[in-house]
Amino acid sequence: MPLYIKDNAVAALARDYQTMTGARTTTDAVRAALQLAIDQASRKETVREKIARHRAAMRNIGKTPKRYDRKKFDDGLWGQ
Questions:
Q1: CB of 25 within 8 A of CB of 37?
Q2: How far apart are the C-alpha atoms of 64 and 78, rounded to whole Å?
Q3: 4 near 20, Cβ under 8 Å?
Q4: What are the tens digits of pLDDT across the range 25-74?
Q5: pTM over 0.70
Q6: Where exactly are the structural domains of the chain?
């Protein structure tokens, strides 16, 4: 099925991309651009994956010592 681009601005973008990438035809350029967009979208990290990654990082930070004196720490920040 042939590809018809009716919007002149979109057609210009496709020709620019064709020139930049050295694609043989405008159709090849559009195919490559769409494939690139699909690949990037499929690699996008989901919210669940982000949360899991952050939780793992937090576990690696470690826990606060049991005899941690928060007041002493805060006073040290203020030079007291």
A1: no
A2: 21
A3: no
A4: 999 999 999 999 999 988 888 899 999 999 988 887 877 667 878 888 89
A5: no
A6: 8-77
